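Q: What does the predicted 3D structure of Solute carrier family 26 member 6 look like?
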Amino acid sequence: MGLSEAPGERDTQALLSRTQAMELRRRDYHVERPPLNFFLNQEQLEELGSRSPAQVTLQWRTWFRCSRARAQALLLQYLPVLAWLPQYSVRDWLLGDLLSGLSVAIMQLPQGLAYALLAGLPPVFGLYSSFYPVFVYFLFGTSRHISVGTFAVMSVMVGSVMESLAPDDAFLLGLNSTLDVAARDATRVQLASTLSVLVGLFQVGLGMVHFGFVVTYLSEPLVRAYTTAASVHVFVSQLKYVFGLHLSSRSGPLSLIYTVLEVCWKLPQMVVGTMVTAIVAGVVLVLVKLLNEKLRRHLPMPLPGELLTLIGATGISYGVGLKQAFGVDIVGKIPAGLVPPMAPRPQLFAKLLGNAFAIAVVGFAIAISLGKIFALRHGYRVYSNQELVALGLSNLLGGIFQCFPVSCSMSRSLVQESTGGNTQVAGAISSLFILIIIVKLGELFQDLPKAVLAAVVIVNLKGMVMQCTDVVSLWKANRMDLLIWVVTFVANIPPNPGLGVLLDLGLAVAVVFSLMLVVVRTQMPHYSVLGQVPDTDIYRDVAEYSGAREVPGVKVFRSSVTVYFANAELYSDSLKQRCGVDVDYLLSQKKKLLRKQELKLKQLQKENKLPKQAAAASKGTSVSINVNPTVMDIESNNDVEGSKAREASAGTELEDTGAWAPEDAKASDISSLKALGLPQPDFHTLILDLSSFSFVDTVCLKSLKNIFRDFREIEVEVYMAACHAPVIMQLEDGHFFDASITKQHLFASVHDAVLFALQHRRSGPVDPVLVS
């Protein structure tokens, strides 16, 4: 026992000694600041910090530089496999990647067949889409753990395009309405491959121009709500395979509801054998998944429930003859071997343009979201632009080999990580297994019931359906995100993919709404009057911090968001309201009184009741009210006051006029609010805290200038504080600073501005008691 405690005691003593040393260093560390009467305004800060304009480097110039190092860097950037494959540790990683690749391939087989059916294509094309894109991503991708291939959301979006451009009704033969399946499938394969090529072109093009940031406009609540809505469409689209029904094609905003009603109406016509097959397969899949969760710690790899279900269902179907005996629909002929490449049809590009862009963005959003999660968990970096290029090349080359658009699967990615996958070698191994199945083993699944594939799809929707619980968590955490979730879900539910209306419209509605919500939130910011926390130079909202006290005679105003054209007027109105002074009323009353004094002065001059000296003086000093109100106020009040004094004594009037002329202070007192009989503000300085400003536009500049002008008219000096460097540059570029507003009105911090305001008002050193 003593031996086991000795290292712990030594570690504790070492830790205490380090803690004590850090405490001593902390005590010795101190910051000295210039004396109290030294305040850092912007001019002083630029001089003290030796500010110089930042040198702007033109990125495009580096694009045309040619050197061996740059060529090598570009090669490693766009072909990442050359960077990490030479450093691959066979001893440490190969076994894990081998098991992981085998596990993913076992899942790829049933999911590829099922998701091809979901996309409205023959099942074998799901196997093609599980081979070509996966191998291409192995060469160009930067994520080590995501599993590229077929995915339910992508398949349902592809299926919506297939049903809208190649519906079953367009391939009916003769009077008995027999469906020409071969012609329909050939047309849909051509459409799907062309769509995949167009999706790939979009993704590669966006990646090459570094447009990976576009995914930032798809927030997590939006993506989760979108996939949840898509899961509802997936579920409804599989009902016809579960019950063995033939449904009519529909279109319109309520087509999803009509489809459910039609399923309910035709339930008496269902094939009982098909329904029983789907239920049994679904129960087996659920039980195997539950068993995997219970034994997760004890199993080296999950039990391949989907593969075992497919093998068992195929064997039973072949042995019993489910199609002949019970009318159960089966997959049918699966050709062995690979298909030759096929050129896309450019004539279809115009019809597929909008759908291709939506599929490209959604596929990339899902892939990059999962990629960043795994990268953060395992300590490496995923490059969004290169991910765009990798996914684009996967879809582009896959489309040439008759694949439909793909992304990454959440369930397979989790399996690839949990079974020991370390690199995309696991993906390459899974694609090789799929190749073996395509070449040799695919034809063995010809008797596989489609109801089993529908059960595989429905059971795998569990993760997306469980996202409905986001409503509860978002209600507690963030109501605005909940609103985005609900609007996205509702916008994508009414159209029914696979029945003529596309999901890209719902996605566009969701994105526009989320961006509009951001704009609306900037128009409802939190405005606050700040007070000083005692014994600190920290200023906080006096409404939230009861201990914060406003500095006497100083108002500090702050907005929680930047000010721009959409909220500049609201900022000005809230400022005047929070200051407790009706600025507009004071300005209008002051101008009205000064205008009356000017008219009265002119009337007195016309009646020749003023001495010639006073008339000459008033004539030489009269100024238009629109040019310089401050000077006019002083001079007109000077004349009016002189005229009142003249009524008492002409000699006194001349003497007083001569005495006031050189004294600006007395003149300003005469034109002040107090002399005019107007109420005065209870503060002499207004400080605008600009720390939340990230940019300014021309409307913001005009609003700030108007604030300076209006408050100076009511004898309140205005200063700005805590402005970031980019905003200062924008103020300079917008010619905000002039003779009346200089950088001396801009301070490094709110505390500096408060100290300067108090000293400037007192015309002497600041009393520290006032601000600390």
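A (community wiki): The structure tokens above were generated from the sequence. The chain has 34 helices and ten strands. The longest strand covers residues 527-532.
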